[in-house]
User: What shape does this take?
Amino acid sequence: MNIGDAAPTFSLPDTDGTEHGPDGVTVVVFTCNHCPYALGWHDRLLQVARDYPQVTFLAINPNDAERYPADSAEAMRKRVDADGGWPLPYLRDETQEVARAYDAKTTPDVFVLDADARLRYRGAPDEDHRAPLCAEWLREALDAVLRGDEPARPETDPVGCSIKWK
Amino acid sequence: MKVELLWWEGCPSYPETLADLRRVLAEEGVSTEVEMVEVENDEQARAERFPGSPTVRLDGVDALPPTETEPFSLTCRVYRLRDGRISATPDPEDLREAVRRIK
Assistant: This one.
């Protein structure tokens, strides 16, 4: 999927079984429970979700839970419960069809869709999962899309653990 | 001293760990070459008792033994830096301490 392409639509269950999909300006983040990059960027991605209430945020875990039990639906639910809930739904991509449709590579891998569901940004949240940053690349892209502009930096290299394909 | 860096290609953090390890060894006056050991499948991960990439072994012992018991598999290790931040690479000062313990 290239910048400007129509993003695949989907509907996936969250940790309570409620289905969610893209709706208006949407951020799709492929992530998981056990990867240090996903964990390192986790808090700042949640903060972006809190800071942009007008945007739909969807976290998707596509990893093979048979080989990686830490990424099972039950483990996802426990993690969200232990955190007292998240400001975005945590979705399970059991068949990995959505991850394949988006050509997701890593956890995390961030996609920003505009209101017409066209891809406007893809890549990392910011430069370094360990640095005291605040997902600047994602915020810059969102600010541009919400203004109706093209992001100045539409693509960065996603950095993280490879998705655990079945 | 035998120094090994076990790594898996699905985790991009091993080059940084290799650079950190080489720097620490040089600063500590240890001239040993780092032996790179690629772990390519789950069977090998179990045989090597590989808790994830990157793993540094000094004289056959994990320099930073994992605190949680996870199945040995192809995965990325979660480290904590000394200030508590989560990291895909070990804190270089933790590597230094481990080297000093056995040199």
Chain B has a mean pLDDT of 94. Chain B has one domain: 3-102.
